[in-house]
Amino acid sequence: MQQDILHDTPLFQSIYNAGFEQGLQEGKKKGRLEVAREVLLMFVHARFPKLDKLAKQETEQMQNPEIVIDLIFKIALAQDRSQAIDYLIDWEETYKDLLQ
Questions:
Q1: Sign of the C-alpha dihedral, residues 88, 29, 36, 59?
Q2: pLDDT, tens digit, for every residue of 21-78?
Q3: Dmax over Cα atoms in the chain, in whole Å?
Q4: pLDDT tier at 2 (50, 70, 90 boundaries)?
Q5: How many Å apart are CA 3 and CA 8, to the nearest integer?
Q6: Angle at the Cα of 97 (from 66 to 23), degrees rounded to 5?
Q7: Helix (H, G, I), strand (E, B) or coil at 9
Q8: DSSP per position, 26-95
Q9: Does the pTM of the predicted model rise above 0.85?
């Protein structure tokens, strides 16, 4: 009974809605990150299949979808395997400003 009264208060509804919105946004970001990771791994596999293991190890550490999306383009345009390796290994240094 008291719980129902609390749920009906404007303060509770405001807090609940704010939490719900934040959770929804975090869920969208996480979903976007997962999709971007999968696309990056597909590009690596299509262009440089011997780099699958390295790409998987590195993408698991990436938490920013913008970084992953940028790397998709870099891998797609990489001139050779060596350049792709550099992109995958050096991503933390390259995007250090986005990591802070």
A1: positive
A2: 676 677 777 788 999 999 999 999 999 999 999 999 999 999 999 999 999 999 999 9
A3: 67
A4: very low
A5: 9
A6: 50
A7: coil
A8: HHHHHHHHHHHHHHHHHHHHHH-GGGHHHHHHHHHH---HHHHHHHHHHHHH-SSHHHHHHHHHSHHHHT
A9: no
